[in-house]
Amino acid sequence: MKKTIVLIRHAKAADPEAGQQDFDRPLTERGKSDATEMGKILSLAGLRPDAIVSSPAKRTRQTAKRIAASVGFDNDQIIWVEKFYHCTAETLETEISSLSDSIQTVFVVGHNPGITEFAWQLDPGFRIEHMPTSAVVAAHVDLKTWAHFPISTKKVFLFKHP
Question: Of 98, 115, 145, 150, whose CB neighbour count within 10 A is largest?
Answer without folding.
Answer: 115
